[in-house]
Amino acid sequence: MTAPFPASTVLGYPRIGPDRELKRALEAYWRQDIGLRELRATGAGLRERTWMRLAELGLAALPSNTFSFYDHVLDTAIMVDAVPGRHRRPQAEDTAFAMARGDEHATPLRMTKWFDTNYHYIVPEIGPDTVFRAVCDKPVAEVRQARALGLTTRPVLLGPVTFLLLSQPGPGAPAGFRPLERLRDLLEVYERVLSALAAEGVPWVQLDEPALVADRTPAELAATGEAYRRLGALTGRPALLVASAYGELGAALPVLAGTPVEAIGLDLVRGAADLDAALRTPGLAAKTVVAGVVGGREVWRTDQRRALSTLLALRPAAARVVVSTSCSLLHLPYDVEREDGLDPRLRARLAFAEQKVAEVVELAGRLAGVPAGSPAPDRHDPASRQAAADPSPVPAAPARSPYPVRAAAQQAHLGLPPLATTTIGSFPQTGELRAARAALAAGRLSVEDYEERVRREIRQVIGLQERLGLDVLVHGEPERNDMVQYFAEHLEGFAVTRHGWVQSYGSRCTRPPILHGDVRRPEPITVRWTRYAQSLTTRPVKGMLTGPVTIAAWSFVREDLPLARVVAQIADAVRQEVADLEAAGTAVIQVDEPALRELMPLRAAGQAAYLAWAVGAYRRATGGAGDRTQIHTHLCYSDAGQILQAIDALDADVTTVESARSHGRLLAEPAVAAFARGLGPGVYDIHSPRVPDAAEVAGGIEAALRALPAAEVWVNPDCGLKTRTYRQVESALAAMVEAARQVRAAV
Ligand code: GLN
Ligand code: ZN
């Protein structure tokens, strides 16, 4: 007999710590300031605190195994023993860190964005010969830890279908191999894990299958059905909750409903259409539906009336309705109550993870208060933002001359060599700089003194780049805490938090600003820093701005306006900044859009419309620049090849993208050869502490030259240098400049 699913739960919880305790411990461990024992103690403390807090808030069912020292996809790879030989270390944590970060012995695995969020996961490598094996230590240890506290938890595992769909073929895999081909072998391991958890007395296990909210082929849906029929048939197993997130299950819903799993989790915020689908799915009548009516992506308080009406509408479709979140709360900060710097009227409208839990608990109480069988109230259909998207196109910006005309004007103006070298913008953010910013915020340092430190940093960064011999310099972004927050702090319509940290990857966190009103730029933001940097050198200094899509993507955004409108407002502010930079004599201006692909709808149906307005916003931001001004853009990911047409439509003169870590995947794309603009495929991976030598970098440049004419190739790192040390940066850039010289001499 299955224990009924308790009345309320959340699909997952933040894990970095309310004061980023995990970040600090990880970084101390990596610096070898603390040992593994201390690191583990920090993890254990955070888990305990989370469970106790959730229980205290009245949440009925607590998740476990949502903690991770780095990433839960990576943990899953370790759980099934899909660990490349080069990364194996005696301790599981060190194995994870070697896979995620690389070290002197091994290059890391690729990292990429998790669905349409700003969270990044480590991409497992699966080949035809990967030997799967169940390594249950982590989920079991968490169950035991909770049990010692008197708590029963629901282990959360990444589901086997999503795990394989997110994986990439291992290095030796034959062309055309797809990791999903290994599903049957993997299921054997999941059976072992489920049995091990059953042996621990665990009543429920959650299997996350967010990959099912994207378009899936009939074969993939069939594989999903097969997977859950098979896991469902396992004897002596825990009850299974298969949870979606980030959108609607659509066609996958009846597939799951046709399997023996006991519960299905629906995202009824972004996947609101699943409500009607659920009512049409007879197979759900015998199951529990874990109803994600409290948004795990949005910081706004839940409309309780609407959520309750969704829950009541769902009741006739299912044997039991449980109140939950639309996805893990991983994407939210911990607690809005700590934000005493926020306008109280704004704060009253906000809910972070703690508040969302309280909302879930409250809704479960309300739902229980409505007797079963009472007629459902009028439905308040959740207004989906997608549906509300404004059909009116963003006005086109006045066109700049065609690229070849501009390129000639820029070349005449800038006189750059072929294989021009540059960086992506930021230089290392030293502890001293961060301390100065903290001192400024605390009133211990005057604005004048702070700005003098920033200028000193700019002088050093310019001096260093001149010494290294780079062609297009940057000022290094020392005045910016973060590429989005900095702009949010200088634009009207945004609020910023003090403690609102959200994990981005590993130990890296961001504090997404809250965009709550109309966006306006009261005065120039970056001009004086760029102008100062330019005053120190005769080489061109790139102005450095964040693009409108990225500013929106990495903020929590108002929902009373269509997203396209919100982004257009930001674009207008950026456009003003571009104009002011240009007027100040800036010949090269980079407008970063690393989040362009991130906001792309997961299903094909919405993608063309999205790209049209997103590209429109970028052109609105940059299209006012004159022909002589060289516009650069930077995108952080290697799958740029997939949206190369859209990138082309951005109409930037130079595009820099990640490439090193994915072993030049981008360059293999046929579309690259047709991309007749400047392209800088990153020649070394800045996410790893490893420093490349000139030969390695030269190899990367030569790979680019096989795909592109020399006049179009730029030589640059994969991304900004902010997270590295000056030692690493100096040697890596020296190798890069040297490599460019060597290759230039040879062509
Ligand atoms: N200009 C930014 C930097 O160098 C770009 C960062 C990014 O792409 N995420 O830091
Ligand atoms: Zn980047």
Automatic annotation (TrEMBL):
Domain Cobalamin-independent methionine synthase MetE C-terminal/archaeal: 419-741
Residues annotated as transmembrane: none
Top EC class of this enzyme: transferase
Origin species: Sphaerisporangium rhizosphaerae
GO molecular function, one term: 5-methyltetrahydropteroyltriglutamate-homocysteine S-methyltransferase activity
Biased composition (Low complexity): 387-403
One Pfam family recorded for the sequence: Meth_synt_1
The keyword Oxidoreductase belongs to this UniProt entry's keyword annotation: no
A GO BP entry: methylation
Family matches, as PANTHER family: 5-METHYLTETRAHYDROPTEROYLTRIGLUTAMATE--HOMOCYSTEINE METHYLTRANSFERASE
UniProt xrefs under SUPFAM superfamilies: UROD/MetE-like (SSF51726)
Needed co-factor(s): Zn(2+)
Record's protein name: 5-methyltetrahydropteroyltriglutamate--homocysteine S-methyltransferase
Highest taxon of the lineage: Bacteria
Residues covered by the Cobalamin-independent methionine synthase MetE N-terminal domain: 8-315
Segments of this protein annotated with the region Disordered: 371-403
Biological role: Catalyzes the transfer of a methyl group from 5-methyltetrahydrofolate to homocysteine resulting in methionine formation.
Known pathway: Amino-acid biosynthesis; L-methionine biosynthesis via de novo pathway; L-methionine from L-homocysteine (MetE route): step 1/1
Family membership: Belongs to the vitamin-B12 independent methionine synthase family.
UniProtKB keywords: Amino-acid biosynthesis, Metal-binding, Methionine biosynthesis, Methyltransferase, Repeat, Transferase, Zinc
EC numbers: 2.1.1.14
Gene3D superfamilies, per the entry: 3.20.20.210
